[in-house]
Amino acid sequence: MDMKDPGSSGERHDVLIVGAGMVGLTAGCALAGAGFSVAVIDKQAPDESLSPAYDGRASAIAQGSAQVFRGIGVWDRLDHAAEPILDIRVADGHPHRGVSPLFLHYDHRDVGDAPFGYIIENREIRHALAAQARTLPSLTVYAPESIERLDRNGYPVVASLEDGRRISADLAIAADGRFSRMREWAGIRTSQLRYDQVSIVCTVHHARGHDGVAVELFLPGGPFAMLPMTEDRSNVVWSERTALAGRYLALDDQAFLEELRLRFGDWLGEITLVGPRFSYPLGLLHAASYVDDRLILAGDAAHAIHPIAGQGLNLGLRDVAALAEVLVDARRLGLDVGGAATLARYERWRRFDNAMLAAVTDGLNRLFSNDIAPVRLVRDVGLAAVDRLPPVKRFLMRHAMGLVGDLPRLVRGEPL
Question: Which of 179, 181, 178 shows the shortest CA–CA distance to 162?
């Protein structure tokens, strides 16, 4: 059933968004809030993606991304669920040898009063966006619904839905994930790499407070992140070799928790599992083009990276901030929001940022996901050296906050 019933006849909108995930709904709320008529189509029923069993992940929302949520009116719905990241500690480690004495430490006070960002459960973000969408009269969500055909051969774009309805728009935005049908239909090629790793995700409760400290340990099988959440909880993102990950996932809760304790350590006291475990295969994807005739790719439809730096969703939110600004500026100038010049500006703006971070995360994963003694020594010394270079540290901290580069107005905390 539609979140809003648009009726059975064809409808005309300014923008059509395919995918009502976190990137798609953020784009819908941003554009509808800026005065565009927006249709969002998603194959899943809204209640399904809001279920606790749907997604066990939490996201590191950089300070710049939090500004995007503030700018589109969503942050007040998220503030109660957002745990500030005040410190970040990065070190080499091993399940049996422990943690290296050489490490990298970021303190948010070195770059101002604001935290680096926030850890928020994906489910909470989905709830907040869905609630905001319901308040916007110019935003219509068709769900569950699938597109049978998307005609972009003329003007306007016309989407034919499986139930026979037709929706037309000036522009289509593909926010339908890394397996995007819209990208496939457009014939846009991708560069892809499948890592021999699986991300094991779970939440633990601990006896002592985390004080807003996020920890990332580089273990032989991949990075192991402990991300501070509300209510004395931490979200664990454990990247492990595929074969070993299967064995760990097959363990009962008690045996799994013992493996978790070997890596988590005792710095937060006794830990207990909260909720189920989840697993996700890891890979790298980058689209050869972010645009086609009256089509824009955003979020995972355009790029998907390793979670080693926790930046995947942040890249998607910067895509949204950039495309919203590009479309708003085009409309103010009387230009075609789906025209080639408008789309080219979006692609120029976003490609370098996304490609650079994809390369950086790929390189970091290759460098740190091994237990080769000479390599381990070099990377430990490198972390310690960066820790003793304040100007370099400040730049990296601002980059982690999403406040470096050619930033859209929403990321800067300015209105569209």
Answer: 181
What's the pLDDT tens digit per position in 143-187? 999 999 999 988 899 999 999 999 999 999 999 999 999 999 999
Sign of torsion, CA 28 30 33 36? negative
371 Cα distance to chain centroid: 29
From the number of C-beta atoms within 10 Å of its C-beta (0-12, 13-18, 19+), residue 283 rates as: middle
Are 32 and 16 within one domain? yes
* pLDDT > 70: percent of the chain: 98
Question: How many other β-carbons are positioned within 10 Å of the β-carbon of residue 377?
Answer: 13
| Cβ–Cβ < 8 Å for 336, 267 | no
Q: Which backbone phi and psi does 191 adopt, to 5 degrees?
A: -100, 125
Q: What share of the chain is helix, strand, coil (3-state, %, to 5)?
A: 40, 30, 30
Q: Sign of the C-alpha dihedral, residues 356, 359, 362, 365?
A: negative
Separation CA 342–CA 24 (nearest Å):
19
Last residue of some domain: 283, 308, 333?
283
Q: Residue 364 has what pLDDT?
A: 87
Domain boundary among 265, 283, 301: 283
Structural domain containing residue 142:
11-70+122-192+287-372
Residue 395 DSSP one-character state: H
Give the max Cα distance, the chain.
67
pLDDT at 53 over 80: no
Distances (CA, A) of 396 to 155, 224, 318, 358: 45, 20, 18, 16
Residues 30 and 179 reside in one and the same domain: yes
pLDDT score for 199? 97
